[in-house]
Amino acid sequence: MALELLVHGVGGATPEGMLDDPRTERVTGDDIAAVFRRADDVDAEAHPAEHAHRPVREAYVWCNLTSGNGTRALWLVLLPFMVVNLAHWMRPSAPGRTRTTRLYGLLVRLTGLTLTVLLVAAACEVALDLVAWQCAGTHACTGRHTWLGFLSPAGPHPGWWSPPGRRLALAAVVPAALTGLLWYLSHRTWRAYESQLPLTDGSFDDTVSPTALGRPGFWYGRRLVARLRAAHTAAGLLTVAAAVGAPAARFDRRPGGPPLLDVLGRLLEGTLVAGVIAVLWVVCRRGRSESRPDRVLDAHLVRGLPLGALALLAVTVVYAGWDRPGWTSTGRLPGDATFGALALTEGLLVIALAVVAHLLHRAGPDRRAAMRGLGGPAVATLACALGGVMSGGVAQRVADWLDGTRATIDGPPVLLTWQASVIPAVLLVLIVLCARLARQAWRLRRAQITEVERAYPDEPKDAARTGRIATARAMAALTDRAPLVVAVTAVSTLLLGAAALVGALTTGSTPTGAADGTPAFVRGAAQTAQALGSWLVGLGFLLFVTWGRRAYKDASARRTIGILWDVGTFWPRAAHPFAPPCYAERAVPDLTWRIATWTRATGGRLVLSGHSQGSVLAAAAAWQLSPAERRRVALLTYGSPLERLYGRWFPAHFGPAALAALHDEVDCWRNLYRPTDPIGGPVRVTGGPDVDREALLDPLAYGRTERHPLPAPILGHSDYQADPAFAEERRALLARLHPKMPSPREPSGEGAGSGPGEATGAGRADAAAGEG
């Protein structure tokens, strides 16, 4: 007998829609991800004769892995962590360059560590500097915010919390709680996702698969994520300890200060340095282990490092809260040095990453690779920029809320103001780029008009109809311009960010202050850039918060955010443990176990049918099978981004060699795509039978016909089952997979209402969800 296993795309689907039957039952799985069948097919294996002439259809529904409930909307805050994790997987393919590959992974992990420190430092800037140090230390500011009155040192009888050290110690609860929340979220998702055992005997032969996705331990990152979680949690707590203890230690080192506190402060600083070294050692010591499932857990390290950092923070809080007569809070805490060091470190890491990526690309050139192998460094730059926008945005907005006129407090560090001031310049560059892309799209549309007329030669011409079809084709082609957009954004962000860092360090004042003595138009431009940048960075942060709040309450908005995570969280957490969890570490083992156990139990063969992101999961599951099991599987992909997106942006894992090997190892593979599809495309496999069918015609009919009395829609990325070619290819795959089995009969109007599985429901579900 034969089984057709359907895997839907992003945006979700229902088993009833995928199987085109209102009566479905769960065969295996849980409320998060499960396999469903029609109620009439549940016991199909017990009656093989009844299913000899048609395949049994199953639907694997995995949408709840990414967009199941409202708490996932909070993952928007983790967006920079998700983006830097993507950079790890974008390395170029370079077989044999093991040391260079490891160096690439190390640089990405260090970049991810700086983002954790940046986020916690931003929380320290808000809670410790703006609130506890500046506002609570000023009578005018506490007069406006009476809830801070118990921290104010003004008046004849200051409260117990009024000394600066105690104010800082109390405010440290906020960044420490943020670090604890990140640890909790990572630990909870780690137990649910990274702990799914793969189907493997523990052995691995490099000759079996040319891609790491075929290795037994690829989808089992339990040990690495636990190590990184311990290191990043410790780094966050050490950042809080440094923010609390440094001002007190600096006061104790003044001439005539108490010797005991001076010695204690130096001991704490030395212990803090030792903790930083330990964190760096854990991050640098080991990366991913993929050749076999690494079930060993470094329990002492995983528990000891965060607990040690927490103990150091507790001692530092007690030290800072000690009574120090004569200590007052004036000016700002030294945040410029901290944020400047972080910006400089991130810039150097990105540049080093670009050099390593270039060396890897030269060792194994791939003409289809995005940005000639520099996609990873560019995406890492964008991750750092996102972290800067979020940290600067929250600092700017809190400072404006406390004192928008800056009459009573100095506000956030100067560097954050400089960074906000360059945002209008970055946006101007992007506007110019978008104008260029719009011009190219218009030219492409004009060229496509001829192609559309050639595709429908016997139809009466309608300029409006032709224009709509040509526009859809031209807009779909813009996906291939994404590398240019990312490259321009990354380069402009890096250069302007470097200029902001130099300006802040050399002038020591805001852009408007640095412009004193210059012509009036220069000062006006600086003031405009500073005001507009501050407004934009605050707006960006508010959009994150508002979008997350709306998604928490609105199911449709939650589905939209779920689509973002479907694309961005396919890859395991290799660079940052606080990134949203990788749903494929649950979905791929699910599919692999189902395929292997069913084929072993029945001796049958299986068609793995995947739409959009489902085709990526299907390919990943096929790579995890043994060669013998893989030979019993046929692939049917449609609207697939396997080569167009994954092959270009992740060449080490979905490059030409990997896709060609998959084609050779599965029984057969066919791929469908349309010129109007902005996501799916050909897989471009060379050698052997062609995988790609000629591009499907979209729309199916140009004008009204007897078969299409109403205007046929432009389908784009959805409803591939509407094309008769879908049923034709499916029938051919089943006939090839079962040469002795009669071809399955299709009802009249093939694919119109009873197409195969996802062909009926998943396409409509994706269209409703707005994918693409």
Automatic annotation (TrEMBL):
Biased composition annotated in UniProt, kind: Gly residues: 750-760
Record keyword Nuclease present: no
InterPro entries in alphabetical order: AB_hydrolase_fold
Compositionally biased intervals (Low complexity): 761-772
Key words of the record: Membrane, Transmembrane, Transmembrane helix
Region (Disordered): 737-772
Sequence intervals crossing the membrane: 73-91, 103-123, 168-185, 230-251, 263-283, 304-322, 342-361, 373-395, 415-438, 482-505, 525-548
Record carries keyword Transmembrane: yes
Superkingdom of this protein's organism: Bacteria
Name of this chain's protein: Integral membrane protein
Species name: Streptomyces thermocoprophilus
